[in-house]
Amino acid sequence: MRLTDYLDKGASLGSTAPCLTMGERTLSYSEVQQFSRRFAASLAASGIAAGEKVAILSGNDPISFSCVFGISRAGAVWCPINPRNEAAENRDLLDLFDCRALFFQKSYAPLVDQIKDALPQLVTLVCIDGEWDSAQSLESWLGEEELDVAAPDDVTMLVGTGGTTGRPKGVMLTGHNIETMTAITLMSYPFEGRPVYLALAPLTHAAGVLCFPIMALGGEVVIMPKPDLGYFLANVQKHKVTHTFLPPTLIYMLLEHEDLAVTDRSSLQCFWYGAAPISPTRLEEAIDKIGPVMAQLFGQSEAPMMISTMSPKEHFGPDGTVATSRLSSAGRPSPLVTVGIMDDKGALLGRGERGEVVIRSSLVMAGYYKNPDATAEASAHGWHHTGDIGYLDEDNFLFIVDRAKDMIITGGFNVYSVEVEQALMAYPGIQDCGVIGLPDDKWGERVVAVVQPHLGADIDGAEVMAFVKSRIGSVKTPKQVIVWDDLPRSKVGKVLKNEIKSELTG
């Protein structure tokens, strides 16, 4: 399926139904369809052929997201560009992707002006929401002709890995990859009636691709232009939201929001969390405060969203109580994915044994764009290598214990930072944390925890270390606890351990 096929499927269930909403403005399915056909024809008139790369640089916005379907209808490739990136990073992505056209919001025009002269292959520059000297306005660029190209099931998205060091890689996702992700979503989570999906997180990331299964059911996507949790709760109540997604960092903040308890949340069927490990302690709190609707997803750019899943009901045991032992897992391998655990020699390991998480599935990318060496490395031994260390338990739940690069070797023992972080997050005064290894003359590496306290909380490092030791033992207990008011984070809210390490090592 093309990306635009999800829009057309939704339209077939009611063309006048609401499709994209932001504030008081709603676009129906037929309005987005017509816009996408005009957009596709205008791309062709601009000399953009099927298979060529088209980038969108925008915050969350209905018109910007409608452009995605125009790109797809023209048979071109959507390149989502994160507006929170630095100018140099976006220049590198546009260059790497061989982008021929860039559509951007006016608020990012200064960034575009910084990089456009270094990108001679960009033949089309269009400002989505106004006039800008160096670009056409969308209004003047968009013609009245309509087009719908019957493109082959080929690469439909190019996604940057967002690497923290060196040049990022471009993940090639095909229509079949997105179709597999959509099928898994519809298989694995509750959907009753026409869904209403609230998108607060960036549409350039997980929040965007989760729109496709919603549209396949003729649902409405309510878009938030910025991450305001008070407005988020107001939207849940106003629009009777059934599905939404937030990363753990924002869930932690939501649990402390004064409006949560008084918000009508009865419409919620599925509250997805993912993109980073979640604290089991805070997850149990979320089940209590938000409701029995929490739903996990685990994936990566190379295998979008749905390597493993945990539906709301799987958070509970047969007796109806919260299954606390499962809350630190990433759920079970999803129906269309085979998960294995592999050692560094390519041998598959048994239940309970720790190694790299590898998968086989039509969910897996077509490869890295113009990078055959990296593609071959990621697919060694006939499996896709995730770079995560984990194990499968006897009930087939997948536990992610760390990124391979984040494992700490201290005194000859392997310490997985995620396990230490989960123990730290159970301490009442800690809101978030990052665990790293620093060089140590005695231990080789010592375990160091940098913690962010709850507002007004006092953190005593000795007490924290004693607390962690009682839970996971002395070897894994941090030798040092450092308190910071805030932690460095990526554009999607992940704690950046490399920046913590850089700050502490100078």
Structural key phrases:
26% strand; globular; 506 residues; 3 domains; Rossmann fold; EC 6.2.1.-; ANL_N_sf; 26 strands; alpha/beta
Topology:
Blueprint: H1 3-12, E1 18-22, E2 25-28, H2 29-45, E3 53-57, H3 62-73, E4 77-81, H4 87-96, E5 99-104, H5 109-115, E6 124-127, E7 136-137, H6 138-141, E8 155-160, E9 170-174, H7 175-188, E10 196-199, H8 206-209, H9 211-216, E11 220-223, H10 229-239, E12 243-246, H11 248-255, E13 270-273, H12 280-289, E14 294-300, E15 303-310, E16 332-333, E17 338-342, E18 355-360, E19 367-368, H13 372-378, E20 384-392, E21 398-403, E22 408-410, E23 413-415, H14 417-425, E24 430-440, E25 444-453, H15 461-472, E26 480-483, H16 497-505
Parallel strand pairs: 1-11, 3-4, 3-5, 5-6, 6-7, 10-11, 10-12, 12-13, 13-14, 25-26
Antiparallel strand pairs: 1-2, 8-9, 9-19, 14-15, 15-16, 17-18, 18-20, 20-21, 22-23, 24-25
Helix pairs in contact: 1-2, 2-3, 4-5, 14-15
Word description of this protein:
- The structure is a single chain.
- Strands 2-1-11-10-12-13-14-15-16 form a 9-stranded mixed sheet, sandwiched between helices.
- By secondary structure, it is α/β, with parallel strands linked by helices.
- It is built from 16 helices and 26 strands.
- The chain is globular, with a radius of gyration of 23 Å.
- Helix 1 packs antiparallel against helix 2 (about 30-45), helix 2 (about 30-45) packs across helix 3 (about 60-75) and helix 4 packs across helix 5.
- The longest helix is centred in the N-terminal third of the chain and has 17 residues, at about 30-45.
- It has 3 domains: about 5-175, Rossmann fold (3-Layer(aba) Sandwich), CATH 3.40.50.12780; about 175-335, Rossmann fold (3-Layer(aba) Sandwich), CATH 3.40.50.12780; about 405-505, GMP Synthetase, Chain A, domain 3.
